[in-house]
Amino acid sequence: MKRILTCLLPVAIGLLTTLNTLAAGLAPDSLAGKTIIVKTTAPSKGTKVNEFAATTYTNTTTGGYGTYTWGLNDASHGVLILTNQTPDDSYGDVSTVTLAFKNNYSGSLTGVVAFAAGGSKVIKGTFAFDVTKPTVSVTSPKANLKWSDTNITVTGKASDKVAVGAVWVQINNGGWIAASTGNGYTNWTAANLPVVLGANVLQACAVDGSGNISKTNTVKFTGVSTTPTGYAPASLAGYEATVTVTGKNQTIIMTWGTNTWGQTGTSGDTNLDDYCAGTYTYTVTGPNTAVITDEDIGMMSWLGTTNDTTINVTFTSATAASCTWSNANDSGSATLKLSQVSNLVPATLAGKTVEAYQKSVLKMSLALANDGTFTETNSGGGDSGTYTFTQYSPTVAILHEVVTDVGDAGAEAYDLLDFTSATAGSIVHSSYANPTYGSNPSDGGQGTFKIK
């Protein structure tokens, strides 16, 4: 049970199974994100698989596609109208089908297909939502392997009743990384994962298009060294550091993913310059020394202005270090307290709502659709547009929104999310009315957030 929950967390925080989604009645309010397997007895026998987005569908059996509408007649019946847009003889055909649910995921169907060329035929059969979990396995590395390199490439296999949508891989509580494939995840690869000296824990899980998640496959192996050992870790992935700047009343928190990082202030920190994220390189220069070169992506305090910083670190123990740092604007020294941190950031927020609060008062609500669009509601009205969600460390992610509404089109907002649990944390918001020209944020604030 613990392994299943581990995989659920990064792949889709709060992802509801088909049964939970349909709690209000047998028939769902929406088909978005669902895969339906249809077996017809008329006009001919056959099996087809349809995948539904917000307003469009794809027939993965035939390659056909089009638009659809869905409406409920009552708690156990709904009407599905499919308009075929495939550029062939079926273009313009309209199928009107009534789905009668006998339980939360299957039932019978009846309807009629009206051909664009004229005429119609009766449709009869059964349907079922895809509720079968995919399977995943790791073929390399093998359990108990001794590995001397600082990186490792992981390979494996996955399968599903319909189709595997993604395979996610995690090592040593770092961020979950999407595996690559050339054949629908029958074989998959995750390259250049960082290995630490000693015990390493590798985990993999698969998810299909319906949101069904496999059991987590776990492989344990050992990282061994061919060089003198010291306190400097082989990788910073999965680490958190409390950084106290010398001579200043300033303490920040830095966390690292595989090649990206996030930075936040401590509780009560209102300096927006303490909140940022970006990419980094980490080079071990000796048993107890290393150099970190990081670049923030320039979005929280001055849009488009990046800042490259070089940090020279001397480790005094496995959990403590001192450093000197410099960039184009400043330099100084600091002490670090290090610890490993579990991944809290989900792989996606699609289908979720992010609510932002200030002193327990709801200030903003962002409904994030599966198709990459958002709808914002706030005290001033709201906006809509497109969004991207990017993880930078085990606890830090950026939600980037671009407004497409007439009048405000092109305006951008960046929300730095600092996760303190799988579904909540603190938020720093910066918005820009004229991002094309680069500017200070025209609006901003801090608070807390919840994911629902």
Structural write-up:
The chain is 3% helix and 55% strand. By secondary structure, the protein is mainly beta. The chain folds into 4 domains: 2-11 and 133-223, Sandwich (Immunoglobulin-like), CATH 2.60.40.10; 18-129, Lipocalin; 239-340, Lipocalin; 353-451, no CATH class. The strands form 5 sheets. It has an 8-stranded antiparallel barrel. The chain has an 8-stranded antiparallel barrel with strand order 18-19-20-21-22-23-24-25. A hairpin with a 5-residue loop joins strand 18 and strand 19 (251-256). It is globular and about 80 Å long.
Any descriptors?
mainly beta, Lipocalin, disordered N terminus, 4 domains, 452 residues, globular
Summary of the model, kept short:
The chain has 452 residues and is mainly beta.
Q: Under the CATH scheme, which class of the largest domain?
A: Mainly Beta
> For the residues shown, what is the average pLDDT?
87
Q: Write down how many β-strands occur, each being a DSSP E stretch of 2 or more residues.
A: 33
Placed side by side, the strands forming the largest sheet appear as 1-2-3-4-5-6-7-8
CATH architecture of the largest domain: Beta Barrel
Low-pLDDT residue intervals, each spanning 5 or more residues: 1-6, 8-24
Please render the helix and strand layout as text.
Elements: H1 2-11, H2 18-21, E1 35-42, E2 46-52, E3 56-59, E4 65-74, E5 77-84, E6 94-101, E7 106-114, E8 120-129, E9 135-140, E10 146-147, E11 151-159, E12 164-171, E13 177-178, E14 180-181, E15 188-194, E16 198-208, E17 217-223, E18 239-245, E19 251-256, E20 260-265, E21 276-286, E22 289-296, E23 307-315, E24 320-326, E25 331-340, E26 353-358, E27 361-368, E28 373-378, E29 381-391, E30 396-403, E31 412-419, E32 424-432, E33 443-451
